[in-house]
Amino acid sequence: MPTLAGVETVLLPYTHFSVLMRLDKRLAAVTALGIDGEKLMDLDRSGIQWQLDPRLT
After folding, report:
1. Half-sphere exposure of residue 44, counting CA atoms within 13 Å on the CB side?
2. What's the predicted TM-score (pTM) here?
3. CB of 19 closer than 8 Å to CB of 27
4. Residue 54 exposure: Cα atoms within 13 Å on the Cβ side
């Protein structure tokens, strides 16, 4: 992942992707993912509870 000189960031690594968050703007500065397009599938995500990532509080 690249870095941003002079900007406070937090790296949020997940299973198949990562997000470099800018704390001053509370927005993603960089995102990266690793997928195999031949293995894509639709998933039912109904009923999944969304929550804020505690690493950003």
Report:
1. 2
2. 0.75
3. no
4. 0
Phi (first) and psi of residue 6, to 5 degrees: 75, 10
pLDDT at 47 over 90: yes
Reported as a single tens digit per residue, the pLDDT across 16-34 is 999 999 999 999 999 999 9
- Dihedral (CA of 51, 44, 13, 33) sign: negative
**Which residue's entry shows tokens 């509870």?**
49
Reduce the secondary structure of the chain to three states and give it as a string.
CCCCCCCCEEEEECCCEEEEEECCCCEEEEEEECCCHHHCCCCCCCCCCCCCCHHHC
- Tokens 């800018």 sit at which residue? 22
